[in-house]
Amino acid sequence: MADxxxxxxxxxxxxxxxxxxxxxxxxxxxxxxAFDAGWAGVVxxxxxxxxxxxxxxxxxxxxxxxxxxxxxxxxxxAESTLIASWNWELISDKPLDWWIGKLSRxxxxxxNKVLVASIMAGSGNDKELHNWQTLTKACQDEGADAVExxxxxxxxxxxxxxxxxxxxxxxxxxxxxxxxEVATIPVWVKLTPATADIVEEAAASFRGGADAISSSNxxxxxxxxxxxxxxxxxxxxxxxxxxxxxxPAILPLSLAKMAQMTKAFPDKAxxxxxxxxxxxxxxxxxxxxxxxxxxxxxxxxxxxxxxxxIKGLIAGMTEFMERRGYKSLEDxxxxxxxxxxxxxxxxxxxxxxxxxxxxxxxxxxxxxxxxRV
Length: 373
Ligand SMILES: Cc1cc2nc3c(=O)[nH]c(=O)nc-3n(C[C@H](O)[C@H](O)[C@H](O)COP(=O)(O)O)c2cc1C
Fold this sequence. Notes:
Layout (H helix, E strand, L loop, with lengths): L5 E3 L2 E3 L3 E3 L8 H10 L3 E3 L3 E2 L11 E7 L5 E2 L6 E8 L8 H4 L2 H8 L4 E7 L5 H16 L4 E6 L11 H4 L2 H14 L4 E5 L6 H11 L3 E4 L3 E3 L21 E4 L4 H14 L4 E5 L5 H10 L3 E4 L1 H4 L6 H18 L49
Parallel strand pairs: 3-4, 3-16, 4-9, 5-9, 9-10, 10-11, 11-12, 12-15, 15-16
Antiparallel strand pairs: 1-2, 6-7, 6-8, 8-14, 13-14
């Protein structure tokens, strides 16, 4: 029998699948429904201390392509296929006090499920660093199994929060370190994919003491413009602001970010997120070295918490392991990480004399060949 259970940052999971921090985990009732449906863990909607007021109007819409043709639109229609979610929702608009009591009740009712609290504060001064510590202590006192630091929300209303932390290596280290000073539970860091080299922010977070990196959050993006009205398909009184793209469209983008990190830190723990709707997608992250996988968009579109998504993930993983004779996730975790190489290492046709893009030797009258890298 295939054993789907795994240990990740010292925590036992009955299977490697979690709901990510987003609407599916915005309330105690959703979280408990998710556990009943089979999710091994959840990351709560991000909890903060500052006041949160969302925009006037829808916070999330879904971009679909016509099945015959290239029309992309957020209008809900038959004969179309999901391409992505687009959202500009802020973190939980419920204050910490609302979550206190509920987190502990969830954990008492589901002691074998994993409850990760996503948290966020500012980073502009010592008071804000203290706020990270306040949130960490409050959540661990409630029985949370881990905290996930949100350094990744691409559309915060404050410049010292969310992906603005994740874009600054020094802040990644400083905030993680401040949290580690008070944390008695594992600390996961959720990084933004919107930087030039995510390995640098991952390195900084590990230097600060992070136990794991989660990636990706949504990618910064705009809704498309309706060619008839010339309005963005999502707007408030005609205006739009950068929001986050999730769902199928980001799976390959997110895999690329994840691969950079798992190759750079093969011994560290990673939680893969982005575009997962079925087991084939989740498998990509595991083969790159991830120990757990998180889901948002597909779950939102499946009765808000993804009962069919988790059934499919568990059935797919069980069938895959039994067919291949794998006993545990560790048997195949990371086995495709080393297949990603630099372009110059990819084989060329034999009849050509290939030297990685450089001349063989100095040719009189021409510049000297550059050193190989
Ligand atoms: C409506 C919405 C709200 C989200 N809110 C949060 C949040 O509060 N904190 C967070 O870390 N990520 C948040 N996310 C990002 C998701 O957790 C996830 O990283 C992202 O959607 C990519 O996964 P997916 O392709 O499965 O949707 C949100 C995503 C959506 C669509």
